[in-house]
Design a protein that fits this description.
- The chain is an alpha/beta fold and 353 residues long.
- It contains 14 helices and 11 strands.
- The strands form 2 sheets. Strands 5, 6, 7, 8, 9, 10 and 11 form a 7-stranded mixed sheet that branches. It has a 4-stranded mixed sheet with strand order 1-3-2-4.
- α6 crosses α7 (194-207) and α7 packs parallel to α14 (337-351).
- The longest helix has 15 residues, at 337-351.
- The two termini are 25 Å apart.
Length: 353
């Protein structure tokens, strides 16, 4: 959920492999291959080439825009991917629906480079740490332009301030939008209480007339271009925007926010499971994880990789690597399919208000 996304699904062919991920003939023809399904712009393309050069395993790479686009494809099984990178709450849903293979960690010895805190966090969606390996993590917060916003930014309340009418960007994501309202109201972002959900819906409806646009990756571009004063954004995106526009800053609201993690998983029935595990192991190598961080700017859970970051300001950045003990953070969990449908219905009511 939280990447520099592309508007259309892009297929990258590495090392000259032709065909596509749903081409059974192509998969059967070459077992020295891996079919990867990941968020847009969520890996350094050079790493794919380097992996192929080092291992001889060719990479076929597809991109998706949201967890909700990815999930039905994996559930249907028509497209046989070997490796996917869902978000925390979606991983739990996939585990509950028996859509994932257990990872053989004998084939992923570099997993030891992932910090213990991140394995502990992963327990919220993968209780025994059997099905996933943490890839990146971060927070959701407020990006603001210091030339347009003069007061201290430390609360979600600013997103309801009438003086910023048509200068506010909200995430076009049901869970993220409701998280903002729920945390502002003092509720859990995982609430299923009907009264609390209705209150959050009504708060979002009240906000709608102030919102310039509901967007995803456009938050980054609009804020860099000074087209808005305030936007809800993922921390990794905030780092990127600051590089492009020094007038931008990022705040984690005092009411609390989401602490999210995306992890690698192997879909049930993957045809190249060992290749997938080799790829995960490669990504867990400190030098590779550091190289990847510098490209995607999303926080790495790889502790030795963090030590390799040359830029001291980035290595010690409170945006990239905040002191988690200072904030009221909550991990998003799967609410169940019925609750997800209800939340989606409420979001449609907000959007059509």
């Amino acid at each position: 959920m939280r990447k520099r996304l592309v508007l259309a699904c892009l297929l990258l062919m590495v090392s000259g492999l032709s065909g596509c991920a749903n081409n059974d003939a192509a998969q059967n023809k070459n077992d020295n291959v891996i079919y990867v399904y990941n968020w847009g712009e969520y890996i350094d393309p050079e790493i794919l080439t380097m992996f192929t050069e080092e291992t001889g395993i060719e990479v076929v790479y597809d991109e998706y825009e949201t967890n909700e686009i990815m999930y039905p494809k994996i559930k249907a099984g028509a497209v046989k991917y070997d490796l996917v990178c869902p978000s925390d709450y979606m991983i739990k849903k996939m585990i509950d629906n028996d859509l994932l293979e257990e990872i053989n960690f004998d084939n992923v010895p570099n997993y030891v480079n992932i910090g213990e805190d991140y394995w502990d966090q992963a327990v919220s969606y993968d209780p025994d740490n059997r099905y996933s390996v943490p890839y990146v993590w971060g927070t959701v917060g407020i990006l603001y332009n210091k030339t347009m916003v003069k007061e201290k930014v430390d609360s979600w309340a600013i997103l309801w301030d009438p003086k910023y009418k048509d200068e506010i960007l909200m995430q076009d994501s049901v869970r993220d939008a409701f998280m903002v309202a729920e945390k502002y109201l003092g509720y859990s972002m995982n609430t299923t209480d009907e009264d609390e959900l209705q209150e959050a819906k009504e708060l979002l409806q009240q906000q709608k007339s102030l919102v310039q646009a509901y967007v995803i990756d456009q938050v980054r571009d609009k804020m860099i271009g000074n087209e808005a004063a305030i936007g809800v954004i993922y921390s990794g995106e905030a780092i990127f925007t600051q590089r492009e526009n020094p007038d931008l800053d990022y705040a984690i609201p005092k009411e609390g926010t989401a602490l999210w993690m995306d992890s690698w998983v192997i879909p049930k029935g993957a045809r190249h499971k060992e290749n997938a595990e080799k790829f995960i192991n490669y990504l867990c190598r400190p030098d590779i994880a550091c190289l990847n961080f510098e490209y995607i700017t999303y926080s790495t859970p790889n502790m030795p990789a963090r030590d390799l970051i040359e830029d001291e300001d980035i290595r010690n950045s409170p945006i990239a690597f905040p002191d988690l003990s200072k904030y009221n953070l909550e991990v998003q969990v799967s609410l169940g399919e019925e609750a997800d449908r209800h939340l989606s219905d409420l979001w449609r009511e907000v959007k059509s208000y």
